[in-house]
Amino acid sequence: MSQFVGLLVLLCSIGIQTSAVPNTKYEPTWDSIDSRPLPSWYDDSKIGIFIHWGLFSVPAFKSEWFWYYWQNNKEDDCVQYMEKNFKPNFTYPEFAPSFTAKHYNPDYWASVFNASGAKYVVLTTKHHEGFTLWPSKTSWNWNAMDVGPKRDLVGELATAIRKTDLRFGLYHSLFEWFNPLFLLDQANNYTTNFYSHGKTVPELYDIVNTYKPEVIWSDGDQGAPDAYWTARDFIAWLYNESPVKDTVVINDRWGDGIMCNHGGFLTCDDRYLPGTLQKRKWENAMTIDKNSWGYVRTSTINDYLTNQEVISTLVKTVSYGGNMLINIGPTAEGTLPPVMEERLRQMGNWLAVNGQAIYNTQPWVYQNDSLTENIYYTEPKISEIPTVYAILLDWPKSNLINLGSLYGKFKSTQVQMISPDGSLIDLTWYNDVDKKFRINLKPVISDLYGWVLKITNPIIRK
Ligand SMILES: *[C@@H]1O[C@H](CO)[C@@H](O)[C@H](O)[C@H]1NC(C)=O
Ligand SMILES: *[C@@H]1O[C@H](CO)[C@@H](O)[C@H](O)[C@H]1NC(C)=O
Ligand SMILES: *[C@@H]1O[C@H](CO)[C@@H](O)[C@H](O)[C@H]1NC(C)=O
Ligand SMILES: *[C@@H]1O[C@H](CO)[C@@H](O)[C@H](O)[C@H]1NC(C)=O
């Protein structure tokens, strides 16, 4: 065996990132783009943090679509909100000076994200309002360096995140609601490219070259064809030549008809949680505030997911092969709303104990036993002995559970529960009548959000 082959075998056997086949040249076609293997870090990570931050964080009312609602429907509560709280004829750009970010501490954000157990972060560089959080050369006086914070919010977070082991990713909206050049191209049925060539596509290259993001989360194609956005050319460049060509992952929102069909991982819809296995890798982008991606100052506790709901969404997502991108909305001052921070930290506490059932796993042959119990399965990608994790989302009053999917599938089986201190507690099990695989649980006196059973030695795997 040559040294080279030896090295390759070693790299593969220890699971080192082998993304693209070296020297593969991707063409600007969806067939070619779709043929690229997804870099393995992404599927192994399972959890990312989504951050929606922008001028909409100033009114912080209803949602990040505030400007659009306010302008497009005279009956909308955003109109009343403006009438009640702002002088007549106040314009949206006048929010910019109040977007101060004066308490923005990116190192603190990074420490919270790291504590959450997430493995990557995706920040809005520009939402549909068009205001850029970095000093975009094509967004004069409509960016965070010229007005508002007078800081490069994107660059500062990139630096902070890179002090941790998390990966840094960026969200970018292709269209802008009220950009006159976009509206002109749209009126011309996208036969002209004033906006795409002059504004938004240069921004995509700019953020990749400047911040080297390992996720590009594209959004807002607004029904325009992918050719108008020159999406295939951009992605081919990203995969062949960009500074992140070997590790970058992209989503699927790149033009009319592309979402849920082409790209890297599929997002399909907001809060996508299909409940069945999918052919391709997918992501569930969801929010802690159930109604909004941006911060909303009028939200009450009932508007937020509980810790139980966060963990249960994570477990269901992972058992069906998805990643969860959990969204928070910081304030205009740059602080993280404490309730969001608390949800993230609780998720991290749970993962610190139970993460082996989440990270580096894949869907098992059965995904749930939800007809009888609130149970979801995963299996480690690599393990010395065959192992299945059963994640119990409700504790049964009887302290007895029935895992129908496991009936008859285990012989010299060991069933253990991961206790809150991380140790393994042995449990007894038996094949019952009526095809029931029963496990006697030992009650854990602890208010957890999900209990993990580690089941080793199945005799039938597929
Ligand atoms: C608001 O704008 C309208 C139309 O330009 C103008 O007629 C009106 O005087 C303005 N109101 C105030 C209070 O400036
Ligand atoms: C990130 O979290 C891990 C696990 O809690 C911890 O060991 C590590 O020190 C943290 N890293 C940073 C940079 O905060
Ligand atoms: C706009 O362009 C599309 C695709 O090129 C075409 O199918 C459609 O008929 C055009 N619509 C109008 C109103 O010209
Ligand atoms: C359980 O899994 C089956 C098969 O994958 C699926 O059809 C069903 O919808 C799942 N139930 C829930 C509650 O997810």
From TrEMBL:
Pfam families per record: Alpha_L_fucos (PF01120), Fucosidase_C (PF16757)
Gene3D superfamilies: Glycosidases, Golgi alpha-mannosidase II
Assigned keywords, A-Z: Glycoprotein, Glycosidase, Hydrolase, Signal
Coiled coil residues, start to end: none
GO cellular component, one term: lysosome
Signal sequence, renumbered to the chain: 1-20
GO MF annotations, alphabetized: alpha-L-fucosidase activity
Record flagged with keyword Acyltransferase: no
EC primary class: hydrolase
EC number(s) stated in the UniProt entry for this protein: 3.2.1.51
Domain Alpha-L-fucosidase C-terminal: 367-456
Domain Glycoside hydrolase family 29 N-terminal span(s) in chain numbering: 18-356
Residue ranges crossing the lipid bilayer per the database entry: none
Alphabetical GO biological process terms: fucose metabolic process; glycoside catabolic process
Function: Alpha-L-fucosidase is responsible for hydrolyzing the alpha-1,6-linked fucose joined to the reducing-end N-acetylglucosamine of the carbohydrate moieties of glycoproteins.
Recorded family membership: Belongs to the glycosyl hydrolase 29 family.
Name of the featured protein: Putative alpha-L-fucosidase
Organism of provenance: Tetranychus urticae (Two-spotted spider mite)
Lineage of producing organism: Eukaryota, Metazoa, Ecdysozoa, Arthropoda, Chelicerata
